[in-house]
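Lecture notes, part 5. Sequence design as translation. It can be helpful to think of inverse folding as translation between two languages: the language of shapes and the language of residues. The source text, in structure tokens, appears below.
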């Protein structure tokens, strides 16, 4: 009789732990929806370094997709840089580039951090593992609570040959640059080799090209991108942000859809 009672109590406790874990798992979803609900002009730029050759990256990719979905039309800007140093291990990531890897190396020097995937850098001043839900949630909430010191006005238009971005920046300093980034909102790949062999991977906010413009003597102008393969105005956007080239800190961000 005693053993039967202990069994029932044990089962009840296990059930409570399961329910508690389920509720805890759902908390980030609720927090993400509340992130940008305040009235400040704060923002969060999430620079995410990933690779299709990295078996630890798909959960972080999925988290970026979740953040994007739960923060539509909010000042949370995701940039997924696919690095190329995983390509030598059996699978070439078609979105990867040496420029993306160099971007990560720059942060390694500025932030005195290691180079790894999945890595996330928030507003150019904080880095951690990109699949760490709690760290991501807290960093975004903290970032959007601070006031932006730079403002960016962007307008994008395209024709059959190129994309034109009209920009106007205010509030920048002598060490600032405007980084304009051509972003594909979503894509997927069936991976045939490497650590993710046999997996169907989804990606969000994929960086294709990035231009850096010095703002020392010119805070207004027009810049261009060549039309990428499979381009359409619905599935692509331009994200721009102002960054201090010495400290790495980002002082303002904005995005433009295509007119």
């Amino acid at each position: 009789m005693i053993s039967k009672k202990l069994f029932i109590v044990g089962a009840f406790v296990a059930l409570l732990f399961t329910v508690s874990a389920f509720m805890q798992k759902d908390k980030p979803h609720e927090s993400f929806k509340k992130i940008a609900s305040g009235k400040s002009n704060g923002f969060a730029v999430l620079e995410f370094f990933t690779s299709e050759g990295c078996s630890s990256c798909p959960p972080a990719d999925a988290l970026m997709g979740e953040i994007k979905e739960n923060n539509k039309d909010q000042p949370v800007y995701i940039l997924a840089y696919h690095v190329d140093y995983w390509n030598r291990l059996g699978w070439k990531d078609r979105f990867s580039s040496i420029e993306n890897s160099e971007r990560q190396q720059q942060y390694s020097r500025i932030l005195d951090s290691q180079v790894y995937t999945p890595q996330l850098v928030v507003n150019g001043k904080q880095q951690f593992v990109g699949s760490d839900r709690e760290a991501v949630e807290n960093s975004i909430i903290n970032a959007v609570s601070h006031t932006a010191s730079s403002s960016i006005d962007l307008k994008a238009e395209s024709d059959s040959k190129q994309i034109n971005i009209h920009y106007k920046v205010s509030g920048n300093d002598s060490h600032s640059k405007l980084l304009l980034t051509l972003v594909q909102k979503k894509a997927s790949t069936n991976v045939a080799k490497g650590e993710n062999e046999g997996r169907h991977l989804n990606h969000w906010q994929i960086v294709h090209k990035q231009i850096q413009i010095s703002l020392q003597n010119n805070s207004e102008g027009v810049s261009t991108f060549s039309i990428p393969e499979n381009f359409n105005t619905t599935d692509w956007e331009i994200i721009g942000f102002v960054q201090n080239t010495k400290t790495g800190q980002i002082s303002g961000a904005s995005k433009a859809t295509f007119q």
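The translated text above is only one of many valid answers, since several sequences can fold into similar shapes. The radius of gyration is 21 Å.
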